[in-house]
Amino acid sequence: MKILVTVKQVAFLDDEFEMRDDDRGVDEDFLEKDLNEFDHYSVEEALLIKEAAGDDAEVVVVTVGDEDADDALRTALAKGADRGIRVWDDALAEADGVAIAKVLAKVVEREKPDMVFTGAQSADFGSAVTGMALAGLLGWPHAAVVCNLEYSAGANTATLRRELEGGLEEVMSVRCPAVLSIQLGINEPRYASLRGIKQAKQKPVDELSLDDLDLDSVGSASRVRRMYAPEKGQAELIAGSAAEQAKRLAEIIKELRGM
């Protein structure tokens, strides 16, 4: 039994930063990188299923990224994942979520896992599209923002709860194999032990190219045209009774309209 977990190395901004000369991103010198927060939970959920199943289960983590992304893989391996896969090609430098899903779909076809877990979204772009696109490409069932999961290794179905708007939750069953996008708070992610960190250095990581996956290109449906910090506006807390608040609001509207 095998669970494939997709992970991502995400970038975080320092308090002070500068944009690149082409205005399409932040200068690399002002970025800090780490494993995506949501992926800690998807890795943990896979490890819990593996531990319940014993030696019959394997957890494989996969990322699409350059050499810097090895750190994300090693973090997951140090927590207890069995092996890692990193896919990279210079053509993927500006790939969007759908393009990444095309690459991951080829990895799934290669690995033939029983389940695929993704984070509900990435902490940098937050588009939440990769898991859904991956399931669509595979023709597998998909559930997003999964906050509770009941699944035994090798089972044909999984029962889960997923978050909806307004504080509601939906209980549903899905056929397996399936792609599940895991939400924050579904479990309590473990810390990597010193022993686990040492062992992670010895665990295998396969490095694959687009050629290895029989992909000539992936083609992004979107591209970043410009990135910038918007001008700061102003805010005012309006106190008082409803009538006083309405009067002040009317005054603000008149001021803005130049009346």
Task: Summarize, please.
This protein has 259 residues and is of the alpha/beta class. It is built from six helices and eleven strands. Strands 9-8-7-10-6-1-4-5-11 form a nine-stranded mixed β-sheet, with helices on both faces. Strands 2-3 form a two-stranded antiparallel ribbon.
Notes on the protein architecture:
Helices cover 29% and strands 24% of the residues. The protein has 259 residues and is of the alpha/beta class. The strands form two sheets. Strands 9-8-7-10-6-1-4-5-11 form a nine-stranded mixed sheet, sandwiched between helices. It has a two-stranded antiparallel sheet with strand order 2-3. Helix 2 (70-79) crosses helix 5 and helix 3 packs across helix 4 (130-138). The chain is globular.
Number of helical regions: 6
- Share of residues in helices: 25-40%
Instruction: Give the biggest sheet.
Output: 9 strands, mixed
Order of helices and strands: EEEHEHEHEHEEEEHEH
- What is the count of β-strands? 11
Radius of gyration: 22 Å
Name a few traits of the molecule:
6 helices; 24% strand; globular; 9-stranded mixed beta sheet; 259 residues; alpha/beta; 29% helix
Which helices and strands occur, and which strands form pairs?
Layout: E1 2-6, E2 9-13, E3 31-35, H1 37-53, E4 58-64, H2 70-79, E5 83-87, H3 97-111, E6 115-119, H4 130-138, E7 142-150, E8 157-163, E9 169-175, E10 179-182, H5 194-200, E11 205-208, H6 242-257
Parallel strand pairs: 1-4, 1-6, 4-5, 5-11, 6-10, 7-10
Antiparallel strand pairs: 2-3, 7-8, 8-9
Helix pairs in contact: 2-5, 3-4
